[in-house]
Every structure is written in C-alpha cells, then in structure tokens.
Amino acid sequence: MEKKKTYQSMKTLSDTLHQSKTVRQLFNNHSFLLFRLRQKWKDIVGEMPAKYSYIGFGKGNTLFVYVTNSALTQHLFMMKSELLKRLGEDEYGKQFTDIRFLAGTPKKETAGKTTVDKINDRLAFREKMYDQPLTEKEKKDISLWTQVHIKDEKLRETFEKLIARSYQKDKAETAHGYHPCMTCGNLIPQSQTVCIRCENKLEKTEEGSFILILKENPHYKYEDCLAVLEKQDKKIKTIPGRHPFSYETYASAREKWIQKQREAIFQNTDAPLHKRILLSLLIHKPLKNITLREAEEALRNMKQSKYNSYDKK
User: Fold this and answer.
1) For residue range 257-281, what is the model confidence (pLDDT) as tens digits?
2) Are 313 and 266 within 8 A, CB to CB?
3) Considering Cα of 81, then 83, then 86, then 87, what sign does the dihedral take?
4) Using CA atoms, how far apart are residues 194 and 175, in angstroms rounded to an integer?
5) Cβ 176 vs Cβ 168: under 8 Å
6) Binning pLDDT at 50, 70 and 90, where does residue 306 land?
7) What proportion of the chain, given as a percentage, has pLDDT over 90?
8) Is the dihedral of CA 235, 239, 243, 248 positive or negative?
9) On the CB side of 56, how many CA atoms lie within 13 Å of its CA?
10) Contact indicator for 88, 101 with CB cutoff of 8 Å
11) Strands (E), 32-130
C-alpha cells in the first residue's frame, strides 16, 4: 500500500499562476492579448514608423492600424506582407491575415491615475521645508522649559523633540510667507485670511443666527434676515476677502431647518405645526396665513422621495 504524503511539496510561483483558472482566463482574454500585441508593435514595424502608427483593433482576421502621418501610409502599405510575416510569429498575431491602415489622431500617452509621485513630492517638499536649524538660544529655552514643567526625565526628551519640531514649523512657515490668522493668530498661507478652524466657527455662529430668525419667521428670505441682523446690531469681526452672513450660509441654515421639520413630521412630533412651518419655508409665505389643510394638500402634491414622505403618519 502506497504511503500518503503528510506534507505538500513547494511549487514555483510560475507553476501556481499557470494552474490558476482565473489567471488563465485573464491571460487568454482577447483585450489583454490585443494589449500585449500593441506593446510589441514597435518591434514589428520598427522604431520610426511606430512613432506615427499604432494598433487600433482587430475584427475577424483583419488588424486595423491607425496612422497619424499620411506620408507613412504608403510606406506601411508596401510593407504589408513583411508585417504579416512578423505578426505570424506572435501567438495572438498569427490569426490576422490582412492589415488595413486608417487615418488616426496622435496617440496620447497618459500617466496612471493611481500614481503617488505628486504625493511623495509634496511630502518631500514639506519635510525639507520644515527642516530648519534651531539657534542655541532656542535650544536653551526649550531645555529650560522642559526642566521646569516636566518632572519625569523619560518624558522630558520626548517633549523637547515635540517643542523643537513646533519651533521648526513656525520658522519654516514664516520663511515661506505665512502670516497670522486674523482671528486666532495661527500661521496660515498667504492665500487665506483666516484658518479653516476659525472659518468653521464663524460659519456655525452665523448659521445659528439665521436659524434663530427662521424659527420666528420661517418665510423670511435672505434680504429679510439681513435686515433683522442689522436691527439686532450683529457685529462679527470683518475679515478682508470674507463676506459675513453670506447667502451660502443662509442657504445652509435654511436647509438644516427644513430637514428638521421633515424629521419632526416623520416622527409625528406635533406634525400639523411642522407641516405648516415646512410649507412656509419652502414657498416663503407667512406661517399665520397657512392653514393645516393647505399645508397637507401642498406637501402631498410635491415631488417626494422615500426619504421625504410627509403623509406616513
């Protein structure tokens, strides 16, 4: 009786790939084989003609080649028999018994979309940018601060590195024309007037002001809200290049308030009132002039989606 093996022998990667059904299907795919033939076109036709011609597609036993130089077309036509002979040496190309030459546009070589060269270049630039030497005074200040505030000697070295990196960052950004944010003072590029964090805070503050107005008067338009803000003497720090209480902020606040009414209607939380408020927001009609019947009928006739149904409850 033959003894069974209790182990598996090692196989080469090429043998493993050759036995894989998926790999065989990939390598025998018509598009892949045509791609391989296109890669060999330079060897088949020659270096100079390959600059002005390329394989387009295959149909039946005919290979269609695009030629971008009209003067070269006649030359390739005269070489047809030689080209067919060279194609016959290729496992896939031997199926073609005729070549047709068509006028074509120059082939554009495009770089792969998944390249990380730009990212790596940016990271290398930032690394070089922030590699700034510290003066002896700065090093002494860092060491003195850590000795006073960090009692654990093991952590002291780590904090010294972090603070030194912060010093280097500030020096590098100042050298590259960065300037302080007009709100918080953090360094930002020349193209900005406030940092992203302060910008978000300002927008949230302004959105909240618009929402408070729309709570009282849901039918108010942008101009009406601005008039109310002027009466309230709302003063937000004016920043060059940035318009306080912009229309975009109003539109965002209004959309949030609309979604709030839709959620309340769906959850059946005082739905009659929220239906009237929602219609007032949508058509800019005063709430006191909208009846429940009018609101229900108008909302029912509006285009709805599965996320936006007003009559579920």
Assistant:
1) 999 888 888 887 778 888 999 999 9
2) yes
3) negative
4) 19
5) no
6) very low
7) 17
8) negative
9) 18
10) no
11) 53-59, 62-67, 98-103
3-class DSSP assignment, residue 269: coil
Residue 39 CA, distance from chain mean position? 32
Q: Whose CA is closest to 182, among 164, 201, 168?
A: 201
Average pLDDT over residues 193-204: 79
Beta strands 179-180 and 98-103 are unpaired
The pLDDT tens digits of the residues spanning 117-140 come to 778 888 888 888 888 888 999 999
Q: Are 203 and 212 in contact (CB under 8 A)?
A: no
Between CA 45 and CA 80 the distance in angstroms is: 10
3-state secondary structure of 67: strand
Backbone angles phi, psi at 10, to 5 degrees: -75, 140
| Distance, CA of 265 to CA of 276 (rounded, Å) | 10
CA 75, CA 78: separation in Å to the nearest integer? 5
**Residue 33, class by beta-carbon neighbours within 10 Å (0-12 exposed, 13-18 middle, 19+ buried)?**
middle
Q: Which two tokens stand for residue 186?
A: 């953090």
Q: In this structure, are strands 53-59 and 62-67 parallel, antiparallel, or unpaired? A: antiparallel
pLDDT of residue 172: 87
Which CB contacts under 8 angstroms, 24+ apart, belong to 158-165? 164/134, 164/138, 164/139, 165/130
Could you tell me which residues come within 8 angstroms of residue 170 by beta carbon, excluding any fewer than 6 positions away? 187
Looking at the whole model, is its pTM more than 0.70?
Answer: no
Average pLDDT, the chain: 81
- Tokens 């495009």 sit on residue: 110
**Pairwise CA distance, residues 214 & 261, whole Å:** 12
Q: Identity (one letter) of the amino acid at 185? A: G
Rounded to an integer, what distance in angstroms lies between the CA atom of residue 101 and that of residue 77? 8
Q: Residue 23 carries which side chain, given as an amino acid letter?
A: V
- 312 vs 269: CA distance, rounded Å: 12
